[in-house]
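Hi L., both proteins are below.
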Amino acid sequence: MAKSGILSSKQIELYTSQEKAFDEDGKLKQPKQVSINKVGHALHELDPVFKGFSCSETFARMLSSLNYKRPAVVQSMYIFKQPGIGGEVVPHQDNSFLYTDPPTCTGLWLALEDATVVNGCLWAIPGSHKNGLVRRFIRDDAGVHFDRPSPSYASTDFVPIEVKAGSLVVIHGDLIHQSFENQSPNSRHAYSLHVVDTEGCNWASDNCWLRLHYSRCALNETGGRWRVDTCPVRRVEDQEKQRPTADNCFLSSLLALFFSVV
């Protein structure tokens, strides 16, 4: 069943809303297993395999090196980018959707298969993270919307980020990035996490995409070994009680390569 968006993560959702996956009568043109767009956004919380994979000393150290004090994973996605139908993702900044004051969002994009210009790799504008946040996606009395129009970008400003399977792309929250359709006969699977800090900043109450109330999540060095403490993140929908989630940690040390565009 196609999903258009979520505001909480009481369950793991399947997303099949890709135009090219359906015929004129709204029926799938290929088997379901090659029609799914992505699975999200709480794999790191609700699936034991992904939860275990999303927790490691390696990432605790990495996030500490990026000056995170009490980081929390706020969403996770398995992205399929199916052959022939994997759709375009328009230019955007992650801080637009996952805003803290001051901004602290970082995207962690793990290539599970080779990502090329043909099968829909990431593209980014080098140095664009230095120019600040362009716009936000908010919820207010007028509903949910961007607070200003999207700027126009020249295609020549973007450069491809082609990576091998096992590579990790670390994306600054203000980096302008996108991906194009998968025009190849091969899929482009990736696992994506987004992290924010919970110390020295505030989660914006008008964030539309996720409405969070979180508490302690610390990186501690105990006996010479780094670990990530339990972080009871609470996600709430309108008029629902806050609900503690599972531990929020980070990717395991199975990563083959660390690739950064920050």
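That was the first. Here is the second:
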Amino acid sequence: MIRLSVVYSGISPLLGAEWLLEVERRLGKLKERLETPMIASVNFWPQRLIRSDFDYGHDRVYEGSFVVGLRTWTKTDCPPGKPVDMSKVREITTRWIEQTSKATTRDFLLLAHYDNLPDLKPCTKTWPRRVLRGDIDDDEEDEDQEIQGLPSSTPTQNGESGQSLRPAKDVLNRLKYDDIFNLDEYVIGYKDRVKNKIVEKNAIDWEKNSTTEEWIPEHRIEYFKRISVDGDEVIVWQKKTKLDLIFG
């Protein structure tokens, strides 16, 4: 048996969710490496687990567990009752953890335990999901504005026309450097000149260095959107409607 502990000590629920999804995505690769005739038959517990005494309201550090069951093969190419080769299991699991964790920061930790299971219960925590729409037609954009209650004309946030709008560069800088904002919660909608559509990009991934291939001129930014912990989406700055909830 293996218990894989997925630990997240950061403050961004979105980053925590993405870390968990990345680990879950790579579990299949671990199964492929372990499940050979000379090692073990592998089964995953179908749900992420947490300690039975874990308190969502007070425990700052999240620790979830994926339980991996190992049993002896009973096929002809592996004699019945042959013990699982735990030394090989540890070697493969350690290598998988190193490959999975190589791109993470100190807020993320992945550990393997091979001893008896502690008292666990199913994890019921709801993590936010960042869903980015690749292509947005102009008609779809107008529909989204109506659904979210945004005006289709061009008034300012105070309902007055003619006022100047702070540029996207100022908005991005404030989201980055003002401690009251969490940049991980924001996405940027910009005009893609090749597709001639609106495309969304995570604000934290926005590249300001004009010498890189990923660089996109800031004048092509159409809006900033905040995605809350609960998954709610709110436009907080928009060029077309002159909406500005960042500087107000």
